[in-house]
């Protein structure tokens, strides 16, 4: 089984990512409620973690990785790849010009 | 919302459809919730390139490449011939050593777990995979339903490795570790020459996101207790 660390830590991080994703009403979101319910249902009652608990933990860790990576990817995209070309107005403005107004459109 | 064939997604009271206009139905409630969360996360614009689970569901429903189960399995197992973790360099020695230390344990794990011979090779032709090994993987993959197979094939194409993908599906390693091992040479070069955030981290996050989505997709489509079998006709 993969080295996952403490289930509680995964759960907290996952819930935090869901907060980012869902916005203000995150506590009512289906995902938030589903994750909490799943963790409660599989609460550790004995010393050994049973297979079902391990599977749930792995799923939670995978979902956490998905949410986190998507957020990070999007942030990098906005930072480096989102800006696009400048419009003609902006380019003219760089050197102090303004584009001429042509009421009838281009000739 | 629940329906006899599976779970549907409603966007502002309209039922979500696939690109080929089929009704968007998924076999697992957890998967439906995760897809709904992807849609809820969209703010001003719909960024489809971030909605990996939705994309995977669309692929499973529409099957745009028109492949049947046998063809999907064949495509997946074919990757073993050029599996990243079997394809080794000789130069530079530091990288060869790194590949040996990081990848050998994975190959050994796969050989033990599936009772097959795989090995590794520095030849440009790649490793020589025995037919019996391929057959073992073919029959193992046949035990997965069509939806899960779409996910498995997707993960394999992302990681460029059947071994890393099976290792992930079998929960032997985490997504982060699988991605790291898949990108071992890149990581080696980054350590030597430095990191370029807008390229390296960008690719890293995208690969992690896609691999995580594929893995989650496979697991959610394979659970026997929560999956609606009617939808997963092979």
UniProtKB/TrEMBL annotation, chain A:
Membrane-spanning intervals of the chain: none
Superkingdom classification of source: Eukaryota
One annotated Gene Ontology cellular component of this protein: mitochondrion
Region (Disordered): 79-107
Biased composition (Basic and acidic residues): 79-88
Function comment: Plays a role in the assembly/stability of the mitochondrial membrane ATP synthase (F(1)F(0) ATP synthase or Complex V).
Protein name: Protein FMC1 homolog
TrEMBL record, chain B:
InterPro entries for this protein: ATP12_ATP_synth-F1-assembly, ATP12_ATP_synth-F1-assembly_N, ATP12_ortho_dom_sf
Gene3D superfamilies, per the entry: ATP12 ATPase, ATP12-like
Keywords: Chaperone, Membrane, Mitochondrion, Mitochondrion inner membrane, Transit peptide
Annotated Gene Ontology cellular component terms: mitochondrial inner membrane
The keyword Transit peptide is assigned to this record: yes
Subcellular location: Mitochondrion inner membrane
Protein's UniProt keywords contain Membrane: yes
Superkingdom, natural source: Eukaryota
Membrane topology: Peripheral membrane protein
Single GO biological process annotation from the record: mitochondrial proton-transporting ATP synthase complex assembly
Assembly: Interacts with ATP5F1B; involved in the assembly of the F1 component of the mitochondrial ATP synthase (ATPase). Interacts with FMC1.
Record function comment: Plays a role in the assembly of the F1 component of the mitochondrial ATP synthase (ATPase).
Family per record: Belongs to the ATP12 family.
Protein name listed in UniProt: ATP synthase mitochondrial F1 complex assembly factor 2
Gene for this chain: Atpaf2
